[in-house]
Amino acid sequence: MSAPRIALTGGTGFVGSMLIDLAMQCGIEIMALARSDQPLRQGVTWVKGDLANREALARMMNGAEAVIHVAGVVSARAPADFTQGNVAGTQALINAARAGGVPRMVFVSSLSAREPDLSAYGASKARAEQLVRDSGLDWSIVRPPGIYGPRDREMFELFRAAKWGVVPVPAGGSASLIHVEDLARLLLALIPGGEDVTNRLFEPDDGEPGGWAHPAMARAIGRAVGRRVLVIGLPPRVLRWAAWVDGRLRGAQAKLTPDRARYMAHPDWVVSAGAAVPASLWRPRIGTREGLRTTAEWYASAGW
Predict the structure, then answer these.
(1) How crowded is the C-beta side of 211, counted as CA atoms within 13 Å?
(2) I need a surface site. Which of 15, 60, 161, 226 has the fewest CB within 10 A?
(3) Is 207 left (phi over 0), alpha (psi -120 to 50) or beta?
(4) Is the pLDDT of residue 137 over 60?
(5) How far apart (Å, rounded) are the C-alpha atoms in residues 224 and 227?
């Protein structure tokens, strides 16, 4: 029996690169979309192009059994950028899958889609989810919570702050977390489909009941880097001010945009028990305290 072939977007990113690593261990062949030339890897065929390139999308679908859609815009200054990347891009991928006879799609969304009125990012993910539901494909939607792990640049800011001994977090509220390797394992486990996962939405996490209160998460990151940290809770107005400052200092490279500040201030980013993945299919393997420690070690060894 030949190895399964999967079409993948976002293969050069944080989650996608981990997914490729695991797919290679499982003998899964990957057709991966990339904007630029990539190093050769056995079992990976890089297809040069982006989500606006119909010819590239058609090539990526050639012989694929399923498509895993990881790529997306997570930070932008203008709402139109979210719409173009997350909504129009998802529709283009759906069109290519249908035209190429690829029956199944696993779509990586975001918990922010639960509250589309809070941010342009969340609104774009909610719209993309609806496109997937209406696609006629055999689909599963995954809404990850906060993703961390080696090579991540989003939560890296918190690790760097912890090294200085002060970690700012949103005041009040809680959030769930998941290690990137556990998330990638789930995406691969969803490839075959089946009645337990077809046309269903999942919110996976690390198994921590009730998620992580923001101060507890900050202290856990502090322990991971070997520091006892001072945790500072930032109310919404301060988050908005900090976003303005970050934009002035780093411009288009700003991590804390006004859009992100709005959804960060929301008090409940804990996964829903009703959207849990069937335990017979997948369970998290990496405890977050240990995962944070090994992530900190990776940052240190990589010189970050």
Answers:
(1) 22
(2) 226
(3) left
(4) yes
(5) 8
